[in-house]
Amino acid sequence: MAIKKKITSATLKALTPEERRLNDTEVSGFHAIKFESGKVVYYVYFRLNGKQVNYKIGLATDLTPAQARDIAKQKLGEVASGKNVQEEKKKAREDTKRRKFLNFEVFLDKKYSAYLIARNPKTASKTINHLKSRFKHLLSKDLDQITAWDVEKWRNERVKLGRAPSTINYTVNTLKGALSRAVEWGLIESHTLSKVKTIKHDNTRVRYLTQEEQSRLLASIYTRDQLIREKRRSANQHREVRGEEPYPSLDNVRFVDYVEPIILTAMNTGLRRGELMALKWTDISFDNRYLTVRATIAKSKKSRVVPLNDTAYQVLFSWRKMHPKNEYVFVSGQDKPLTDIKKPWLKLVEKAGLVNFNFHDLRHHFASQLVMAGVDLNTVRELLGHSDLKMTLRYAHLAPEHKAAAVNLIG
């Protein structure tokens, strides 16, 4: 008996072997079948030469409903373009049989890398290098020999080293994603990494600057800028003595480099580091005083508009006048987008005497200032680009006067 519902973790759990099949309401042809053993397998059904055929996507223990649905969409798209996905899967199995070994490193280099490049060439090499560096001890292992115990041992070692749970979870999920693709392509029957559970941790940490800390940070930026100006003056004096062309003077410019403007922009817009570094001048409307975070660079994959307050406007306007021909707002070298600010940032934090304060905390600072100024949480959510209110609720405790006002309404 087939049931038409969206395939989710909840609907799969509620499905009985007697009901047997779930037909997804979101992607036509995407099905989940539960067997008497309790095993759930994802399939995608389509027509080939007029006949209905199915393509096994994989086990529910290896793939989440969302991952399986994405694969179903992909396969249906390939079928629509004329590809014989059944034949390709069969060929992949035969290729595996012909190879006595298909170890993890070969898989990453020969198979997975090409797949990632096709999806997102900008991040493909980063993902491959991340997997290789974190799981060096697994590179020589055959794919079907990588076990949950291997990953559990690695994870326990990282925990002992004090690595952040979110970082560990990201790496484990990246490995799971790679092996799930190997299952989809018929290179292995299944993997056991679904047994490696996500580390639960408190991600509600909110670190923002007090007025005194903010003053110290701004003072350390000012001191740094003055030191750079002094060094430039000294260098030009030496060049003048040697009869050499002086470097451009930094005495009459607002900013000595990108460090001050990117920090001030972060403090006053709440943009993530990656969003700031990918920001282009075409994303900024000085006439209307706002910037747009493009969907392609936003973590949520949704665009959002952030108004510019006076500080952000003046900073970006002055910085633009200094770099009228650049494409990117914050550049490294010849108009290449900035990729890191770690070195100067750590020096500034040390000089300012800030404890446990990361660059990302400038985003928390922005949100915290809004909440403490009485801005409602939904507006804060929209400005930060959170997909739902759960992430924004971490700032709710900063507005106790609003809770008190709410209670007093019935007093």
Description of the molecule:
The chain folds into three domains: 2-83, Integrase, DNA-binding domain (Double Stranded RNA Binding Domain, 2-Layer Sandwich); 98-195, Tyrosine recombinase, N-terminal domain (DNA polymerase, domain 1, Orthogonal Bundle), CATH 1.10.150; 211-405, Orthogonal Bundle (hpI Integrase, Chain A), CATH 1.10.443. The protein has 16 helices and ten strands. It has helices spanning 9-14, 65-80, 85-98, 104-119, 124-134, 148-160, 165-184, 211-241, 259-269, 273-277, 310-322, 342-352, 361-372, 377-384, 389-392, 400-408, and strands at residues 2-4, 21-23, 30-34, 40-48, 51-59, 284-285, 290-293, 304-307, 331-332, 336-337. The strands form three sheets. Strands 1-2-3-4-5 form a five-stranded mixed beta sheet, with helices on one face. It has a three-stranded antiparallel beta sheet with strand order 6-7-8, with no helix packed on it. The longest helix is centred in the middle third of the chain and has 31 residues, at 211-241. The chain is globular. The mean pLDDT is 87. Residues 204-408 form the Tyr recombinase domain. Pfam families: Arm-DNA-bind_3, Phage_integrase. Keywords: DNA integration, DNA recombination, DNA-binding. This is Tyrosine-type recombinase/integrase.
Q: What portion of residues is helical?
A: 40-55%
How many strands, what sense, and barrel or not for the largest sheet? 5 strands, mixed
Q: Give me the secondary-structure category.
A: alpha+beta
Specify the CATH homologous superfamily of the largest domain: Intergrase catalytic core
Indicate the mean pLDDT. 87
CATH-level-2 architecture of the largest domain: Orthogonal Bundle
State Rg.
Answer: 27 Å
| Element-level helix/strand string | EHEEEEHHHHHHHHHEEEHEEHHHHH
Strand content: 5-15%
CATH topology of the largest domain: hpI Integrase, Chain A
DSSP helix count? Answer: 16
